[in-house]
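Hello,

Following up on my earlier ticket. Below are the two sequence lines again, exactly as submitted.
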Amino acid sequence: MANKELIRNFSIIAHIDHGKSTLADRLLENTNTVSERDMEEQLLDNMDIERERGITIKARAVKLRYTAHDGREYILNLIDTPGHVDFNYEVSRSLAACEGAVLVVDAAQGIEAQTLANTYLALENNLEIVPVINKIDLPSADPERVIHEIEDVIGLDAHDAPQISAKMGINIESVLEKIVKDVPPPTGDEQKPLKALIFDSYYDLYKGIIIYVRLMDGSVRPGTKIKIMSTGAVFDVVETGYFKPDGFESAPELSAGEVGYIAASMKNVSDTRVGDTVTCEPGGAAEPLPGYKAVNPMVFSGIYPADTTKYPDLRDALEKLQLNDASLTFEAESSVALGFGFRCGFLGLLHMEIIQERLEREYNLDLITTAPSVIYKVEKTNGETVFIDNPTNYPPPTEIDKVYEPVVKADIISPSEFVGNIMELCQERRGTFKTMEYIDTNRVSLKYELPLNEIIYDFFDNLKSRTRGYASLDYEFLGYVQSDLVKLDILLNGDVVDALSFIVHTDKAYARARRIAEKLKDSIPRQMFEIPVQAAIGTKIIARETVKALRKDVLAKCYGGDITRKKKLLEKQKEGKKRMRRLGTVEVPQEAFMSVLKLDS
Amino acid sequence: MKTFGLYIHIPFCVKKCAYCDFRSYENMMEYRGAYIDALGRELSSYRGALEGRSADTVYIGGGTPSALMPAQIIRLGEHIRKNVTLTPDAEFTIEANPDTGTSEIFLAALAIGANRLSMGLQSADDDELRTLGRIHTAAQFEKSFAAARDCGFKNISLDLMTGLPGQSAASLFRSVDFAAGLNPEHISAYGLKIEEGTRFYKMRRELSLPDEDTEADMYLALTERLSEYGYGQYEISNYAKRGFHSRHNMRYWLGGEYLGVGAAAHSYMDGRRFSNAPDIEGYISAVNARGTAVTESVTLSRDDMLFEHIMLRLRTVRGIRHDEFSGEFGFDFSERFKGEIKKYTSSGHMLSDAAHTALTPKGFLISNSVITDLLSQI
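Thanks for your patience. The regenerated structure is below:
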C-alpha cells in the first residue's frame, strides 16, 4: 500500500503558449521518467493534432518518482491540462483529481485571460496553487513585474515563486521541490469502501473501456467487483495500474490517494461516464462524489459522412470519442441535402474543429460539416417557447413573436495600444462595452457583452490579427437577450439547400448573404446548365450570383499512346463526380459546404 | 488478311517546346544511330506475331522525325520493309517540323514510301511561336511547306493550337487564314492544355491564358471558319478536306489494332494494351537484351472495352453506331442512356437518331463531362 504522505497529485495550468507542455517535458526528464534518448518535444501531447498545432487538447496523466532534498522518494502524479478556453472542461476534470496546481506564467507576457480563468477553476476545487515564472531567458522577461501582477491581480504570494526557463532547463528542480513542499498529500481512508472519481476514459480495442481514476477512499485490485454508481452496472476488475508517458504500467493494487487506471472488460460505451463515481460491490459507498459541473455545449453543427453509407461508422466513432471527450454531445438528425448525420454540440469553435479533425484522422472518416449555430430561444405567436439549435427548425417569420440569442461575458486582455482595434471589432460584432481596467501601465482588461453567434465564426482569428497576436480572450455564458434575427436560406437552382441555412442578425444579413453567394459561386464547379445561387429571407431574395454553364472540359489530344492515361483521367473525374452531393439537378462538392464556414478568410 | 496500324516513335527534338509533355528529348542526338538499329531489332522480333497481317497505315511520329538524318530515315525504311507487309494503298505518314523539314528529309521520306506529311505550324504569329518555345517563324514554315510540295507530298496536314497565352480571336483567325491559304489537305487544331512537367506548368501563374468562355467561343468559331474553307470536322481536334481524314488516327478512335515501336510507344493488339520503356537509353538496352522493350501490359476487360468504346467514339463526328454497339456489348445504347441522350440533345450538346449518337461541336467542348456522366450510369 502506498504511503499517502509521499504522494502529490498535481496539474499544470497556464495560458496557451506560456510553456506548460515544455515544463511537463522537463519534469519528466528531471525525474528520469523518460530517458534522454526517448525524449521528444511535447511528449505528453501524443495526438498528431496537438503536436502540429502546438497545443494540448486532452488532459493526460503520468506518474513521476522524485527523490527530494529531504532524502525521501515521492510519487508525483502529473495531470497535464489544455490551455484554450474551449477546453476548460478538461481542465476542471483534471483539477478535481488533484490537491495542487502549478500555475505557469510567462515572464514577459504576464497574466492572461486563461491564467485567470484556470486559477479560478483551481481555487474552486480548493487546490493549493504553486506559481512558477517561466521563460526568464527571454530578453523581454520581467519576472519582478510578473510577481507583482500575480500578487495584485490574483492575490497569491509569489515572492518565492521559482523563476525558471523550461526551454533552457533552468531551475526545474526548484519546481519539484515546491510541489513536494507546498502541495498537500492526499487524504482518504484505505479502510473505507472504494470511492473513485472517473476523470477520463479511453477505448482500447483489446481491453475495452479503460477508466482513469483518482481514488478518494478504499482500494481496488484485479478481481474486485466494482459498481458504476450512476448506472449501477457491475464489473470484475481485470487490471489496475499507473500511467507511464507512453502507456500503462500494471500494478497489483491502487489505494486511496492514488491516481491510476482500471480495466474491467467494459465494452459498452454507455456503461461509464466521466465524472461518475466507482465503488465496490457489495458494501459500496452510500453517496457518490460530487462529480463535475455539467457543461453545456454552446456551439452546434451538423456532421455528416461524405459517403452516406458510412453513417453507422460515424455513430460508432462519435460514441468512442465521447468516452474520451465527455463535453461532446450528439444526436441523430437528417438533412434533405446531406442525408443522415448528427447534430453535435461543442464547447466552442476550436473544440468543433478538433473533434472534426479527430473524427477524420482517428476514425478515418470523410465528413461534411454544416455552419455552426448557437441555441436560439424563440417565443412563438401561439405562446409556445422553443429552443432552436438547427436553423432548419427555425419557425417561419409569421409564427415568431420574439427571438432571444445567447450572450456571453467576454474578457479580453491586451497591450493597451490595441484597445482601439479591439473596440472596433467588438462593435462590428454587436458587442456592448462594459468596463476597461488597467492591469498594469501598458496592459488592459476589456470587458464586453457579445452575442455568442458573433464569436463562433472567426472572432478569435480576427482578434489575433488585429492585435498582432497579443490579445487573449476568455468568455462565459451570461444569458439570453432579445434580438432581431432572421433565417437566411440559400437556394441553388431555385431550391433551398437546408444544410446551408443559418440565422443572422438583420443588420448583417445582406453583407453575409452576398459573401456566401460569392463563395458558393466560386466553389461550385460549372455544370451543364447555368446555376443561380440565391440567398433569401423568407421568400425575399437578397443576393444572387450565377455559376455559369460549363463550356469547356475536353481532352484535345487523344492518340494511341495516350489512351490508357486519358482513360485514367476520366476514371478519376468519374470518381470525383461520385463524391459530389446531388441536390436536385445540381452537383455540389464537399468543399462548398465547408467554404461557407470560413467566410472572411 | 487482317490489317493493323504501325506506329514508330522518334523521341528526338532539337529543342523541347514549352507545352510539350510527350516523350521527347533534346540533347540526345548522338543516340539516333543506335536508336534506329534498336527499332530494326524490335520490328524483327514482332515478325512472328505479324504473320498473316499487313499494315494499312504507318505513322512515324515524335518527337521530331525530321530531326533524323536522311540516311537514318532510309535505314528506318529498310527496317520497315524487311519486317512488315504494307497493303498497296497504305497511308504512310511522317511528322516534320519546319526547322528540320528540308527537301533532303522530304525526299528521303518519300523514298521509303511516305505519302502523307504532318507538319507543326501551331501558330502564324511569331510572338506566339516564341512563347510556345518553337524554333521557327511563320515565314520559315511557309518555305518548308513549299519544299514539301515541290518534293512531291500530295497529302499534307498542319497542326494549329488554340488557347495560347496572349492569343486573341483575331490572332487565331490570322493563323487559320494563313494555314488555309497554304491549302493543305488536313488541319489539326489542338486546345492548349498545361500539363505537369512542362515549362508552361512551371510558369502557369504568369501565363495570361484566355478564360474558359473565350476559349470555347474561339473553338466554335474556328470549327465554323475551317468548314467555310472546306475542312470538315471529323474529330474533336481534326478537320480534313473530303477523303483526307487521317486513317491512322481514326484507327485509334474506332478501336482498331496497332503496333507501336520505339521508346514510350503504345500498342493495342489482340485485346491487350501494352507499352514500351519510356526513355531512350532504357529502350535501347531493353531491345538489345531481349528484342522488345515492353514494360507495361494490360488485357482489357469487357468493362474496359465498353468504357473505351464510349470514350473514343464520342470523340468522332461519326459517333456511336447503335448497331455496332449492341453487336459488341449486347445491349441497346439509346435505350440504356435514354435519359442522358434526352438531356444532352435538348441542350444542343448531342445529336441522336435511330442509327447513331454523336456530340455536336458544343458537345465536344464538354465531352469529358458527357462521357463521365454516361459512364457513371453503368
